[in-house]
Amino acid sequence: MDLQQIKNFLILCDTLNFRKAAEQINIVQPALSRQIQLLETEIGAVLFNRSSRSVRLTEAGIFFQKEAERIIQDLNKTITKAAQIHNGEAGEVRVTHASSAMNTVVPSFLVKVKQKWPDLKTIAQETSNAQQIEMLLARKTDLGVAPNIMLPPEVNSKVLYRENFVLILPGDHPLSQKGFADLSVLKNETFILPQLSTGVGYVEAILQICQDFGFKPKVAHESAHSIGVLRLVEAGLGISIEPISSVRGANMNIKLTELKNIPHKASMILFWLREREEELSRFIEIF
After folding, report:
1. Beta strands per DSSP E along 92-142
2. What is the spatial distance between Cα 216 and Cα 229, in angstroms, rounded to a whole number?
3. Is 98-158+270-286's fold the same as 162-267's?
4. pLDDT per residue as tens digits for the range 43-64
5. Which residues pair with 269 in a beta bridge?
6. What is the pLDDT of residue 87?
7. pLDDT-based confidence at residue 181 (cuts at 50, 70, 90)
8. Which of 21, 77, 243, 271 fits a 20 to 30 Å CA distance from 262?
9. pTM for the predicted model, two decimal places
10. Cα-only R_g, the chain
């Protein structure tokens, strides 16, 4: 098979009509039919169910369509990047990150990249752990930075740093630092945490901290972003636990108690697709 054959297949997927597809490609209909037959023979699968009235994709055809679209998309990106390199342009690097990473490693990374490659476009997007993984696997981002994230096997990673968690209470909460013994005294409090489905790995770490002190936290509100969590705590709607970097620079009516004497730490993790490691090595090194 060749690239034009795959492109013609995708056009037929869109039209599901051999005559219309042939007109769009600017070839005769029998030639397109022959191309599709050869493609099916080479693949070893029927891609279309044909009748006198309709053309429909088979299950194998639907799968091949999705993968072919991805291949064409990746190829177009490669062609664009090669042209940019030839013309002295730098392209772009995309980074997704957790809230706390913007208080630590992300700004310095962006500054260093700008100093080294002034023409390189940098895109930083704050989002949840789950969405970061989804975007990375779909190649909608290049690098991700998140605390305690659980990663699929296609992804490689490096721990950038570890830090303590911090207990966050409303400013008028009766518990003082002197009166704080351990988290078990807060077992009847309501907590504000990210959703378990979006805070992959990170929420499990917080739940484990509470479990070590003999209770399961009662979650009253859920927020995927640190600033949202802090605002809800400040409003008196519950308490929370966050990496200490999440509260850096926060000028709010809240009380903070650093959890120094627990084994669990917030581990900030840089991650990327294994198959792109060589391509992204210069950025990984900067981090």
Report:
1. 92-97, 121-126
2. 19
3. yes
4. 999 999 998 889 999 999 999 9
5. 146, 159
6. 61
7. confident
8. 271
9. 0.66
10. 26
